Amino acid sequence: MAEFNNDTLFPVILASTVHDIKNSLGTLLGLIQQLALKQSSDQLDEIRQLGFEANRINHSLMQLLVMYKIGHQKFDLQVEEYAAIDVINEARAQQDSLLQMSNVHVRVECSEDLLCYCDYQYISNALGTILNNAQRYTQQSVIISANKSDGYIKFCIEDDGQGYPVNLLNADLGNPVDLNWVNGNTGLGLYFVAAIASFHKDREKTGFVKIDNQSRIGGARFCLYLP
Questions:
Q1: Which of 12, 47, 180, 203 has the fewest CB atoms lying closer than 10 Å?
Q2: Per residue in 16-70, pLDDT tens?
Q3: Which segments constitute the Histidine kinase domain (predicted)?
Q4: Which pLDDT band holds residue 115 (cuts at 50, 70, 90)?
């Protein structure tokens, strides 16, 4: 029988446990969607909240595993060329059931021939994390876009909600000390996405994120830049 020390055993157990819980949450989200189709309109708010919380736990588990790998130098990207629209569609598909239950209209603005170099899984999950947060705080509309900007591929998610709070706008998203971990997972999600972006490099360029309240539809705007 193979012997494991604590340094090798814990990552294996953590990864296995996270994936197992994520599979269970995926089943739960599917059941929630089916339940929503059978319930009266006055019960949909509770079902939407249940779906959002399950999805939030799903993203938090993924972030936990990734941050553990980063902290223990076990994180590795698989960077290849992808159509930016495919990355957007994958992020949207992760949130599609919740967006439908919430009656949130999503508009996609992206050229079919726009290409980007990234780790498809991590970037689509990162955008899905931000979209999950946007659908909670938006009133009725979200715009997801991608275009070229100063030598980067820029992905943006805009909503028509109340915008980011001042403490997040003033924070260094790459510094966990600047973020409030107590009041919800918005700060954790942004830190996670900023960390993923920073691992994408091309010579002197490094990926990064920006947030502001300059959404074209009046709320928060998140932008992720990939070299």
A1: 203
A2: 777 677 777 777 777 777 776 676 666 667 777 777 777 777 777 777 777 777 7
A3: 16-227
A4: very high
Half-sphere exposure of 34 (CA within 13 A, CB side): 6
Helix/strand/coil percentages in the chain, nearest 5? 55, 20, 25
Can you give the pTM of this predicted structure? 0.80
Torsion on CA atoms 6, 11, 12, 17, rounded to nearest 10: 120
Task: Please tell me the predicted confidence (pLDDT) of residue 94.
Answer: 82
Spatial separation of the C-alpha atoms in residues 114 and 135, rounded to whole Å = 25
The structure tokens 């994520």 sit at 22
Q: Which residues contact 152 (CB under 8 A, 6 or more apart)?
A: 205, 207, 225, 226, 227
Task: Report the candidate in 192, 216, 183, 217 with the shortest Cα–Cα distance to residue 70.
Answer: 192
CB atoms within 10 A of CB 211: 21
What confidence tens digit (pLDDT) does each residue in 161-199 have? Answer: 999 999 889 888 877 666 655 445 567 788 889 989 999
The DSSP secondary-structure symbol of 217 reads T
- Least Cα distance to 160 among 214, 85, 93 occurs for 214
| SS (HEC) of 132-196 | HHHHHHCCCEEEEEEEEECCEEEEEEEECCCCCCHHHHCCCCCCHHHCCCCCCCHHHHHHHHHHH
Domains of the chain (ranges; CATH) run 6-226 (3.30.565.10)
Buried b (16+ CB within 10 A) or exposed e, 62-82: bbebbbbeeeeeebeeebeeb
